[in-house]
Amino acid sequence: MSSTTTGQVIRCKGKPPHVYQILQTQIKPSDSISFKRSLDPINTRLLLKTISSSSSSQAIIKTNSSRFKIFCSSDQVTTNKSMSTNAGQVIRCKAAVAWEAGKPLVIEEVEVAPPQKMEVRIKILFTSLCHTDVYFWEAKGQNPVFPRILGHEAGGIVESVGEGVTDLQPGDHVLPVFTGECKECAHCKSEESNMCDLLRINTDRGVMLHDQKSRFSINGKPIFHFVGTSTFSEYTVVHVGCLAKINPLAPLDKVCILSCGISTGLGATLNVAKPKKASSVAVFGLGAVGLAAAEGARIAGASRIIGVDLNANRFELAKKFGVTEFVNPKDYKKPVQEVIAEMTNGGVDRSVECTGHIDAMISAFECVHDGWGVAVLVGVPHKDAVFKTGPINLLNERTLKGTFFGNYKPRSDIPSVVEKYMNKELELEKFITHEVPFSEINKAFDLMLKGEGLRCIIRMDA
Ligand code: NAD
Ligand code: ZN
Known about the structure:
Quinone Oxidoreductase, Chain A, domain 1, 3 domains, 7-stranded mixed β-sheet, binds nicotinamide-adenine-dinucleotide
């Protein structure tokens, strides 16, 4: 019998009572389990302990229909406060290396150097695949940088910190983010921008800022980083400014998807498009990012949410995210912007583009109502793509905007997005359609290429 309590806090028998969080997805009777322990369920930093199969630290699970109990006395749990026995040392661990464009990733043993000035080394527990990884792996419309460790949507735990890092310590739970927040530059000080001068997304850089070197190597040969995160590795090194410290009780196998796609779509609507109550919103592309944008429209009180996608399989799924109407551009001879203008008496109030395709970007702009319509571009286009539209479309008082990461500042804002999930204002489970062990990471790529599912969680410990 398996349990669905993953990531939930459960109370454990034994004295003194402690609160434990299970890290595994499925628990069967007499399994050994991994869990985190907290002395105080609300505020205390959690200490991580992996329970091995050795008899002294084994937990016994008894299942009783859907309920189960865990018996373990506190003195059987030896906590490893710092998790940093490897601090300052090179760690050898598994990583999925992209050796060449479009070729399956290969699980290799890599060396991960210790974190340098303002850097943090983290243990990744869960990562997921976003379309941006696939674009840079295919490298069709992007600069090829190989060999590289991709991955940027993840949840992990701080293993050790480099010189100058004061906000994080070993054991902290973090979400790495592809764009950072130095907290000192004009952008970080501006309320409007999240385009940090120092740490904004740079897809061509494959090295760390501090010394322009990689922290990953195989037999001394460097392996490049990806957008400062490289989460397809059991351990990775990230600039402190690209790490959001989150509530340690938040289940990392769920909130890891807030590290990129879901926050991006949600923020694109809530922070950038800002639809008014009872307004109409078109969402182009009903992948995880687009559905998160639809979720934002629903939360904002939009009355019509028009989903646009070439893949009709997305439509059924999209109903769960508040999408009220669907348009498949393939079903019409005329441009989709004309179809939407006819459906909405001149155009939608807001549109959010989440496809990465230039035609969809242009349609998303041209389908907003003149006078007040606002279109927001989110998709990452081919590097040579050019946005062409008649200037009259702008003169007629339509607004075109774009955003990275939904305008969220990763360190300042993401902890509160995690709290939205913890308070049940935001549902994440419906975005998670698949799960694979790290050894089968290429399956996650296959699913995304086939357009199946939304987010596939990759479990690092499996
Ligand atoms: P996804 O592949 O899961 O979803 C994309 C969807 O768009 C698919 O359902 C596809 O059928 C649809 N689509 C493709 N071309 C279309 C067209 N011309 N018209 C209508 N629908 C079309 O991808 P995802 O993970 O949801 O990511 C979406 C986009 O957002 C990608 O381009 C990704 O790189 C980008 N992204 C941007 C940011 C940012 O900060 N700006 C962050 C994350 C992802
Ligand atoms: Zn900055």
